[in-house]
Amino acid sequence: MFNLKMIPKFHLRKDINDTILFKKSYKRFSVNDGENLTMYYVHPTDTLLPYAIYPYEGDRYGGRVERVDMYNIKKDIFISVQLLTRNTWDKEAQNLFDFNEFIIKNANKNLFLWLNYIFQKTMYRKLWRIPP
After folding, report:
1. What's phi and psi for 65, nearest 5 deg?
2. On the CB side of 73, how many CA atoms lie within 13 Å of its CA?
3. Alpha-carbon distance 19 to 14, whole Å?
4. What contacts 24, CB < 8 A, 6 or more positions away?
5. pLDDT by residue (tens digit) across 35-65?
6. Is the pTM of this model over 0.90?
7. Helix, strand, or coil here: 120?
8. Is 62 left (phi over 0), alpha (psi -120 to 50) or beta?
9. CB-CB neighbours of 70 under 10 Å
């Protein structure tokens, strides 16, 4: 959900009436693919966050997808996911984003070290005629 570029079956969407939940107004649309009925709630805002649920569709509706309600018709299961924003981050969230930033900054260096390791291991096997 956080890393998908597009909502599955987005071309089947239907815009529905706006609503107010927890004192916030939302634009809504639904996707019914026969197996799942999914409702998406988009809060109109221009605030940028380092994370988002389906950011492409949020931009398309002029806001941020903050809630997704899904009902699986065949299995009779209801799932609801809501993005809760905060003014401050807790320690665990800060550690997670710091770690992700570290990985991104060091990706090229780590890739080089890994490739160098594989190359040396391969050359060692060839030099000593060790089967893989």
Report:
1. -70, 115
2. 8
3. 15
4. 43, 66
5. 889 999 998 887 777 677 888 788 888 888 8
6. no
7. helix
8. left
9. 15
Q: Where are the alpha helices (DSSP H) in the chain?
A: 55-60, 91-105, 107-128
19 contacts 7 by C-beta, under 8 angstroms: no
Contacts with 33 (C-beta within 8 Å, 6 or more apart), sequence order = 8, 9, 12
Buried b (16+ CB within 10 A) or exposed e, 27-65: bbbebeeeebebbbbbbeeeeeeeebbbbebbeebebbb
Beta bridge partners, 25, equal 20
Amino acid at 19: T
What are 87's two structure tokens?
């003014």
Per-residue pLDDT of 49-107, as tens digits, reads: 767 788 878 888 888 888 999 999 899 999 998 887 777 777 887 787 787 777 777 76
Counting Cβ atoms within 10 Å, is residue 66 exposed (0-12), middle (13-18) or buried (19+)?
A: buried
Q: Which residue, chain included where needed, has tokens 């096997």?
A: 125
CA 63 vs. chain centroid, Å, equals 16
